[in-house]
């Protein structure tokens, strides 16, 4: 078997969910498990948080069906609402909470013949300008929904554009937009993604929507997950599958871009970009072997990468190599590659088996 595995620490996932809740005592929290629980495997994540999480949130009916097959009764929010009119009946059958983000969704809902009323989340475009009603349009939508037979709860939600940038004036502006609607009657309100859960208490409202923090990565460029008290959930671990010595002046890998400055020992490692390790990893990016850091040597290839282990004499064939996890924070790798932990986690490909521990 190819030695590459994404080990998912379910105890860390529970810890991080509880930490989100502790940030906002008395509030409830949807665990955001869209995109296959940010690459960790939605069925296992939902099973792990079942009974602990107040609810779950996903991006599509297909994702909702997957969650429902694990948890038949949890509150379950469709963050972008229904994409087609015929999805309302399915959403009702699954007992979903559904976002309504614009006139087209509202019209489709009010025309829908559904077996039971839905909990709706009117989505305010408070400044992200991606989805949602303007404040005035939301007031009109609220009025149209009063007394409609399709409606059970009527709730308010919005989403931050810059919550990961503390002090960004848009955060206050978005909060003001949201607060300006609170004279309307809503059953519940929801605004906070992970960054707002962690640093914007005015946005906590009734329901939090933490995503990335559950998986132990930081939404902030300048605040590490460890500083925030988060535990990494996924460790991506490969092995040394070959070792060779190269002379000074010899090159390693595609493009022959890495040239040994001294006689060097090179380990070939069983992970590449087809597994989700970023090909953009710059020179100097480190992996961890025997608890010590060792830098990449040359370009990441599809199934393998090379590491300079000259300064790590005990490293041997078969040794475990952590690409990210407890030793190499995913956010550190992401920043070096000009991306974010979200992208690395969601891009771990299907051929990498997930192994669950501490369930
Ligand atoms: C509407 C909505 N709410 C909450 C989240 C969770 O955000 P984060 O992962 O930054 O906590 C997302 C994720 O993109 C989202 O789209």
Written overview of the protein:
Strands 1, 10, 13, 14, 15, 16, 17 and 18 form an 8-stranded mixed β-sheet that branches. Strand 11 (251-252) and strand 12 form a beta hairpin. The two termini are 24 Å apart. Helices cover 26% and strands 24% of the residues. The protein is α/β, with parallel strands linked by helices. It is built from 11 helices and 18 strands. It is elongated. The model has no long low-confidence stretch (mean pLDDT 98). It folds into 2 domains: 10-215, TIM Barrel (Alpha-Beta Barrel), CATH 3.20.20.10; 234-328, Lyase, Ornithine Decarboxylase, Chain A, domain 1 (Beta Barrel). Pyridoxal-5'-phosphate binds at residues 32, 79, 159, 193-194, 209-212, 219. Pyridoxal-5'-phosphate (PLP) is lined by residues 32, 79, 159, 193-194, 209-212, 219.
Please give the structural blueprint.
Layout: E1 4-9, H1 10-23, E2 28-32, H2 34-38, H3 42-49, E3 55-58, H4 61-70, E4 75-78, H5 87-94, E5 97-100, H6 103-111, E6 118-124, H7 135-145, E7 151-158, H8 169-179, E8 189-190, H9 194-199, E9 207-208, E10 234-246, E11 251-252, E12 258-259, E13 264-269, E14 286-289, E15 292-295, E16 305-308, E17 320-324, H10 330-336, H11 341-346, E18 354-357
Parallel strand pairs: 1-18, 2-3, 2-9, 3-4, 4-5, 5-6, 6-7, 7-8
Antiparallel strand pairs: 1-10, 10-13, 10-17, 11-12, 13-16, 14-15, 14-17
Bound molecules: pyridoxal-5'-phosphate.
